[in-house]
Amino acid sequence: MINSVDTATNDSKTKFMIAPSILSADFAKLGEEIAAVEKAGADWIHVDVMDGHFVPNLTIGAPVVKSLRPVTKLPLDVHLMIDEPERYVEAFAKAGATYLTIHVEATTKVEATLKQIRELGMKPGITLRPGTPVERIFPFLKWVDLILIMTVEPGFGGQSFMQDQVAKLGALRSELKRIGHTALLEVDGGVTDETAKYLKEADVLVAGSYVFSHKTFKSDYASAIRALKDAK
User: Fold this and answer.
1) Is the separation of the CB atoms in 222 and 41 below 8 Å?
2) Per CATH, is 4-229 categorized as 3.20.20.70?
3) I need a surface site. Which of 47, 64, 98, 182 has the fewest CB within 10 A?
4) Judging by beta carbons within 10 Å of its beta carbon (0-12, 13-18, 19+), is residue 141 exposed, middle or buried?
5) Could you give the CA distance from residue 61 to residue 78 in angstroms, rounded to a whole number?
6) DSSP string for 108-145
7) Sorting pLDDT into bands at 50, 70 and 90, what band is 200?
8) Where are the domains of the chain?
9) Mean pLDDT throughout 59-70?
């Protein structure tokens, strides 16, 4: 079930929504980890799907998403870091993904894939590598409900925050206003309570190691999530 907050952009005074990334969770007890962050106040669950080709890492696929769907009522926010994502849209729809985000660099069929995602009952999202100009995704904004800005190079967790990517948020806000479209802005990569202070234009923050393995919180997921929410 998608909460009503998912369908509208937060204003600047509203607290961030937090999407813990299971890439940093303990996979030996993944169901328990998701239940724990849901209880701790998480808004979404972020799932990183990598194919070892588009990015130099290999993670999980639709079968894992399917196994997670009965575990939580939270939206499953699936980020596809894979070549030709159109090949797998139907599989992730059947698995129960709520949001399905594709890279503009990963396919020559961006518009058709975004439309397919919506037709299959999911909310389409678009993203881009840090080195890709933000204008590259402008033609596709009217087709999406979510725009993901990467503040690290996609592929591995625990990387340092790339502050030069923050300007993309303002550019996207301006372009969305110009075309009269509403979409959520999400940031993923090096997110902490300190870097979040630069992300006031964002609606959703993806946080992996900060939530699941930050040495200060020592598995106190509620405190970690609260620190991120309060950073806005």
Assistant:
1) yes
2) yes
3) 182
4) middle
5) 10
6) S-HHHHHHHHHHTTPEEEEEE-TTS-GGGGGGGGGG-S
7) very high
8) 4-229
9) 96
**What percent of the chain has pLDDT above 70?**
93
* Catalytic positions: 48, 188
Paired with 146 in beta bridges are 125, 184
In which band, very low, low, confident or very high, does the pLDDT at 8 lie, cut at 50, 70 and 90?
very low
Q: Do the Cβ atoms of 156 and 134 come closer than 8 Å?
A: no
Closest CA to 156 of 188, 127, 186, 124: 188
| Side-chain half-sphere CA neighbours of 153 within 13 A | 5
Closest by CA position to 20, among listed 8, 1, 36: 36
Which tokens hold the place of 86?
């159109």
What is the C-alpha to C-alpha distance for residues 99 and 152, in angstroms, rounded to an integer? 21
Identity of residue 211? V
Label residue 109 exposed, middle or buried (CB < 10 Å: 0-12, 13-18, 19+).
Answer: middle
Check residue 5 and report its DSSP letter: G
Query: Can you tell me the distance from the alpha carbon of 1 to that of 203, in angstroms, rounded to the nearest whole number?
Result: 19
Share of the chain above pLDDT 90, in %: 87
Could you tell me the pTM of the whole model? 0.92
Query: Which residue shows structure tokens 């929504």?
Result: 17
- The sheet carrying 76-81 orders its strands as 17-20, 204-207, 184-188, 146-150, 123-128, 99-103, 76-81, 45-50
